[in-house]
């Protein structure tokens, strides 16, 4: 079989310089989350296929990598073979389904109110395009066992702090609620079974504007009256904000809850960032049941974190609903943006100790250890035929200092 | 579809207390490796199936998780369907094949002598048994581009230092060489194509003893003379060590190279551990070409790290051999052993701030931040109906201190 040098389609190799940044960012986020009393857990990247296919992941269900059955369980000779006959496992497409299964499986060993951190790769066989990867990392925090809006406040505030710790500051928080979307859409005269499709259209406001939304809804032959009502509602919500929802069929307690969420997040932000209500925030997953939210780069318009409340998912596993809410930082976008802005860790000092065949390897090792004990990261390297070429390669790897074993004066030189 | 609460067969959920230890151990190993001039890289867990099936992974090739083709590429209606027709990707079974592909794919951006760190999960659909997992973590260091035995010395010494940094000390290093195994087996009169099978039998000395080996070889109908010669050779090597190999058909330069490896590792060990030559060390992978080695727990007899030289693998990808050698710490065994020995991180102070509905959430947050600024990890928790039950749950999670928002005196109490 011919071998292929490339990573699998849509997946990536990370070279040392990028991986160093990725590792730094990941540890920084975990550190902030840990200091706020969240606990690191780990779940497998592989899940039983029925848990994935039976989840409300919207479009993501079509993007699942499916793993073949093994041994006697795999029978390719049956008539009318379908993938269901030959598949038993799949790669997870998010961290929320595995977390819910984890919680249910281990709930007797976990506290009633559980705050988790999960950092790991998820897999979606997306159509390849710039900035879309088929394996990508998510950093999630979740609070399970608390129905209060306090949990949303905490997740948003702690995630914002994690970004601030990385000196990311030009972001804002958008907040909406699935119940508000549903109530307003029904109030305007659409049917229950149309709510999801209307949401998908509303989500496009940024891209196609109000007139584009009108065109799309008319194209789908919804009643004229409902269309004009929803357009009027959107204008009104855009101008008057949350209070306008009182006249659009939304329950008072929901409005005041979201008002409290927005206000408290802003109060805790110290002015470092702003949260506001956004009726056109929808989010793709089918499993959200209440508040939903995103952190968006102000200038760029794209989201770097998103989440929401999913009070019914645990009930899907154990038949008993347990409130849960989560927030996920899209690690890839965050790191790409940091690198684009010139984020650079290469000024951390690393040193190369160059030796040649005449040197005692034991002495080389001892000298390297002595330099390490002074705080340097030290790599030992045999001298290449062309020292200058070797030094320029090492410089490209982030080394800025070197010394040569046979030099008597022990000086550490800069790599220019 | 009925949902399943368990992780996929042979895979595991990691709860906070265990994950905390795992994370600590992983970071400690990475820290030692980084300070010694190795560079963290990352490769995807998914590889193109031809790279996995076309590799010399021995028995592991039968244990590969295979991922189904997608969309139009997947045709289940063909006659005489085989897995090759429907599979395009697989989960990696080690980190060495992905590293070789990575190196080939990125060699123009890497230095001629490259020292890498890879930490990640690998997947093998092993028969389930205690201590065998189907997804497990490996921590690898590799040196690519150096044919000298210096690289073996460095890998062994640095890996031993990583273990010492975790206060693991009751280990020893076993060293052998694939070329020695081959030369001795041929010298005793076996055929070229029998070498691999003889190795598999020799590997069992610990379990079945010399008489067991004799029985197994006779059962396979090898020539009597060859069998008596190999048994005599084993006794001789066991008594006289490396020098006995001069009389067993092994080239002088190989013997002196391995002698230098053993001696130098011992010289650099500071007496903290011992390395010795072991003719019955075989290791399973087919891709090793020279020295092979393991770190073994003395009392327990099982290996916690293993590796060797694989000078031909990169040539398999690009048609040009580049020397390479690697060493892999079996993370799961190491962590399990540490936990069994009572390794415990729960004495790191974490504090719970308990509040109730009457408290202002903004004030709760501010007080928690004030406590964090004094160095505590602080989790905020609403008061449960039964405070004592809540405190005992929190204690089980590793919390040892708490304070209550409404207490006027601000005292931090111990959780007993």
Largest sheet of chain A: 8 strands, mixed
- Mean of all residue-level pLDDT scores of chain A: 92
What is the number of beta strands of chain A?
15
Task: Please write the CATH class name of the largest domain in chain A.
Answer: Alpha Beta
Q: Looking across the biggest beta sheet of chain A, what order are the strands in?
A: 1-5-6-11-10-9-7-8
**Low-confidence sequence ranges of chain A:** none
Largest interface chains and counts: A-B, 101 and 100 residues
Identify the quaternary structure here: homodimer
What does this structure look like?
Two copies of one chain form a homodimer. The first copy, chain A, has helices spanning 16-35, 49-53, 83-86, 96-106, 150-165, 178-187, 195-202, 205-219, 224-240, 252-268, 313-318, 331-340, 361-373, 387-396; strands spanning 39-40, 46-48, 66-68, 87-91, 114-123, 135-144, 171-177, 274-277, 291-297, 303-309, 324-330, 350-355, 377-382, 401-404, 413-414. The first copy, chain A, folds into two domains: 16-177 and 250-340, BirA Bifunctional Protein, domain 2 (2-Layer Sandwich), CATH 3.30.930.10; 350-414, no CATH class. In chain A, helix 1 packs antiparallel against helix 5 and helix 5 (150-165) runs parallel beside helix 10 (252-268). With 416 residues, chain A is of the alpha/beta class. Chains A and B meet through helix 1, strand 1, strand 2, helix 2 and strand 3 of A and helix 1, strand 1, strand 2, helix 2 and strand 3 of B.
